[in-house]
Amino acid sequence: MIFPWPKNFFSRTEISFTNVIIILNTLLYFTFFYNTDNQKVKSELFNNTGISITSEYYQRHLEKYQTQPHYKQILETYDFKDRKHQYFISSFAVRDKFFLEQVEKENFDKDEVRKNYWNDLISKYKMEVKEQVLFIMGLSHGNKETLSWITYQFSHMTFWHLLSNMLFIFLLGYWIEGVIGSFGFILLYLFSGVAGGMFYLYFSPNTLLPMVGASGSVSGLIAFYCFYESKIRTRFFYFLSPQKGLNGLIYLPTLIIIPMFLMTDLSSFLGQIPGLSSGVAFTAHLGGAIFGGLLGISLKRSLHVMKKI
Prior knowledge:
The protein is built from 13 helices and three strands, in the order βααααααααααββααα. It has helices at about 15-35, 50-65, 70-75, 85-95, 95-105, 110-130, 135, 150, 160-205, 215-230, 255-260, 265-270, 280-309; strands spanning about 1-5, 235-240, 245-255. Helix 12 (about 265-270) packs antiparallel against helix 13 (about 280-309). It is elongated and about 70 Å long.
């Protein structure tokens, strides 16, 4: 385990936007997401009968539109007769925007009673999803309201997700705020999140799965720091074990942060089936990082030109 470790680590208690961002994220988590069950809707759609019908309909849909690369990949990856696979397949289906639009227009089942039963289940499911905190505050193709582009950046489903993002804001936020000011810091945070959201929606055109978390914004902060201070060496704290010599402080090139924390996102994105992620929005991380990195490079060059003048 290794993290950037700034100097004066325990003296950062002054009022700043970095503190405000951390406090706001934490308050929203404990207000809206702590002790909530948003992982899945408790619906009959996920009982044995519902799963069986959904996976069957989805298979027919995939076979009809298998010219789409990721549809063909799903057909080749999963066994539609296997009960465990059917559960995953039906989970994919109910968040596939294109499938839900087409299933209302096309007749995948000659049994009208069976079809009407499934239609009732899917209608109830859609209503239940829209009542979830995850859907209301998250960003998705089902909720692209102006406010959701902001609220998703301050929402976290799990405590560990919140903790990891707040740790990086705490480690890098004060330095960034000292360089570009409080107003510049909040704009960098928000617009990195917007860039992350745009990447997520663009590269997942069919998914209705809401995205939450500050990871896109944090990736923007990390990339900004890396490219703005690309020529310095950053102090890191490493921990392999409590044994002497296997933990401590070390100075490394700043740009090592990019492969250390962001290359895994790129490899994971390239390795997943498009639109059917494992629950981690790798594209949002990449979008935020690209925005933050470009801003860091641009600002550094602008200041360099101004010094020459």
